[in-house]
Design a protein that fits this description.
It is built from 4 helices and 8 strands. The protein is α+β, with helices and mostly antiparallel strands.
């Protein structure tokens, strides 16, 4: 092959890989940022926050195998992995209890900071259908569950306890010593009160 043909060939191959990469990026963006990508009847576990689909894994905090722990799971891929930790280990949209989800910020839970009271979080569990949860509380805490803006107020048990109402609790770090906690109650729980 002549030098000219070799250069043209390299340019064509380069453009092919460039456009393939762009195509993959567009596919990823449209597939994994829209709630419409799951097939009807497909049963998976995920949250929808701000129209973004966030898959989660039911793990819980009782797992003694460090390699299979919730912390290990979210550390493996901070941009995508969410796990249940406190409350009930397996999210069930109808058990009238709390499930506590953990994820990283920066990372998969970066959007927690943009949530506001009365925003909707949709949860798809592997037991029932989708259920909407309404953001009812947003708090900043330290690692022991103490509220940052109020002295002597600890909400640790509320965050990680099973409780007696249908709700979810989402938690992510804001810094090495501060966490954001978003509590959302099931739509029917809000209507009853």
């Amino acid at each position: 092959m002549s030098k000219k043909k070799t250069s043209l060939f390299k340019i064509i191959i380069g453009l092919f890989f460039f456009w393939s990469g762009v195509g993959i990026g567009i596919y990823y963006y449209t597939t994994y940022t829209s709630a419409d990508h799951f097939l009807e009847g497909e049963h998976v576990t995920y949250l929808v926050i701000n129209d973004k689909i966030l898959d989660y894994r039911n793990i819980g905090r009782e797992n003694s195998d460090k390699k299979k722990s919730a912390e290990n799971w979210i550390n493996q891929n901070p941009e995508h992995n969410i796990a249940t930790w406190g409350g009930v280990a397996t999210q069930n949209n109808e058990d009238n209890q709390n499930t506590h989800f953990i994820g990283h910020n920066p990372g998969v839970f970066r959007d927690l900071t943009s949530l506001r009271l009365n925003d909707v979080i949709s949860v798809y569990d592997n037991i029932n259908d989708m259920r909407n949860y309404i953001v009812s509380e947003i708090a900043m805490i330290d690692d022991e569950g103490n509220l940052i803006n109020q002295e002597n107020v600890n909400i640790y048990e509320k965050i990680v306890g099973a409780g007696n109402e249908e709700r979810i609790t989402l938690q992510a770090c804001l810094s090495d010593v501060t966490n954001i906690v978003v509590i959302a109650k099931a739509d029917a729980e809000i209507e009853r009160k």
